Amino acid sequence: MMITPSIKTRIEHLLRSNQLSITGSRKMVLKLFMENDVALDHAAIEKGTGEKYDRVTIYRTLQSFVEKGIIHPIPTNDNSTVYALCKECDHGFHHDNHVHFVCSKCNNTQCLDDVLVPEVKLPDGFLPSATQMTVTGTCKKCAQE
What we know:
By secondary structure, the chain is an alpha+beta fold. The protein has five helices and five strands, in the order ααααβββββα. The strands form two sheets. It has a three-stranded mixed sheet with strand order 4-3-5, with no helix packed on it.
């Protein structure tokens, strides 16, 4: 696992600031998220780790990262989940009020951090706990092909 000094520093800082032990699996999974601009599913993470870590280790790593606000889950149309690195979350509090874009050609999911989910006016007595918005279409890369 080759990690550049700047990524290594970011990874160790992120783990320490979230009171997580610095383990090989956590470093490897965080490296994958930092190197990808698309959301990753469990299978892509397993493949990216070179099958060095088993499914349970990866699952537990992902769960601890979600709980700490390091990554956020994104539900997919086929009832699975992909995960993306949080940019504005901190210590277990998710503030991912942005739109997710799913490309219908390459099937990649991207966080559109600069596109905010519009405020939804609910009837009296309804209290929202989370709002998610997914836009489906053709991503920039696929549109240029």
